[in-house]
Amino acid sequence: MMVPMQTILITGTSSGYGLETALHFLDKGWNVIATMRRPDASLFPASPRLCLLPLDVTNDESIAATVAAAGPIDVLVNNAGIGVVGAFEATPMAHIRKVFATNTFGVMAMCQGVIPQMRERRSGMIVNVTSSVTLAAMPLAAAYTASKQAIEGFTGSLAHELGYFNVRARLVEPGYAPTTRFAQNTDVRIEDLIPPAYAGFAAPIFEAFAHPAMTTKETDVAEAIWAAVHDTSNRLQFPGGADAVALYEARQG
After folding, report:
1. What is the mean pLDDT of residues 4-27?
2. Does domain 7-252 have CATH number 1.25.40.10?
3. CA-to-CA distance for 64 and 74, rounded, in angstroms?
C-alpha cells in the first residue's frame, strides 16, 4: 500500500535552521510549506512539492490566513524566533516584549491555529524549536532564555493533553552556532546592551562565543527535527548539535 505523502509547515524559513529544515524535508520527498514574512522563491529549488506562504507569527490574521491556505498539515515546526544578547538591566522592556511576542506567544498562537485540524484527524505532530540555553544557565541571555524556557514547559504540558488525541508534541534544542544571525529580526544592537559596568564581565564571554569548543551546524538542527518527527517513543527533547547534545546528556546524568 502506498504511504500518503506528508506535509510539513515550517515557520521562519528565510535563513538558518528553518531554511535548512525546509530543504532537508523537501529533499526527503515531503510536501513543504515554507513560511516567512516576505517569501523569497530564490532560496529554494523549483519543486511542485514546495509552497511558499507569507506569515507573521505575531499577527493573528496572518496566522489564520496562512493556516487556511496551507490546507491539511501533518507536521508543524515552530522555528521563527528573535535573539537577544546583553545585560538584562540594559535591555529595553519594549524589546523584551518583542522577543516574547515571537518566541513565546507566536509559537502558542501557531499551535492554536493548527491543533483543531490535527485533533479532528487524531494525528499530527508539533515540533517547537527552542535553544540549548534551556539546558544550562548562560550569561547575557536572561530575556531570551525566559522566552524559550516558557516554550519548554508549554510543550511538555501540551504533549500530555494532545496525546489523548494521538497528536504528538516535541522539543528541538539547537546549540550555539557562531554563523547564525542570533539577533535577527531585531533593531537592538548587542553593543548597546553592554553598559560600561558590564564590560569586564562580558569580554571573556564574547571571547568564548568567538572561539567555542563545540558548535552547531544548521544541518544538525534539521536532522534533529527529522529525528523528532519520526520518533515513535514518548521522548520529548531532541538536542541539535554536539554542544547541545553534551549539555542534554549532562542533565540526564
Report:
1. 95
2. no
3. 17
d(CA 57, CA 70): 15
How do beta strands 124-129 and 75-78 pair?
parallel
Q: Which of 17, 144, 176, 198 is catalytic?
A: 144
Whether 144 sits among the annotated catalytic residues: the reply is: yes
Q: Summarize pLDDT for 123-180 with one digit per residue, the tens.
A: 999 999 999 999 999 999 999 999 999 999 999 999 999 999 999 999 999 999 875 4
Q: Report helix, strand or coil for 238.
A: strand
Provide the residue type at 78 as one letter: N
Write out the three cell numbers for 159.
504533549
Complete edge-to-edge strand list for the sheet that includes strand 75-78: 50-54, 31-36, 7-10, 75-78, 124-129, 167-174, 237-240
State the residue for C-alpha cell 504528538. Answer: 168
- At residue 187, the pLDDT reads 67
Sequence spans of domains, the chain: 7-252
The span from the CA of 36 to the CA of 18, in Å, is 9
In this structure, are residues 186 and 98 in contact, taking their beta carbons and an 8 Å threshold? yes
- Cell numbers describing residue 36: 516567512
**Is the confidence at residue 184, as pLDDT, over 60?**
no
In one-letter notation, the amino acid at residue 106 is G
Number of separate helices (H) and strands (E) present in the chain: 8, 7
Run of H or E residues at 54: strand 50-54
C-alpha cell at 61: 490574521
pLDDT tens digits for 49-108? 999 999 999 999 999 999 999 999 999 999 999 999 999 999 999 999 999 999 999 999
pTM score over 0.90: yes
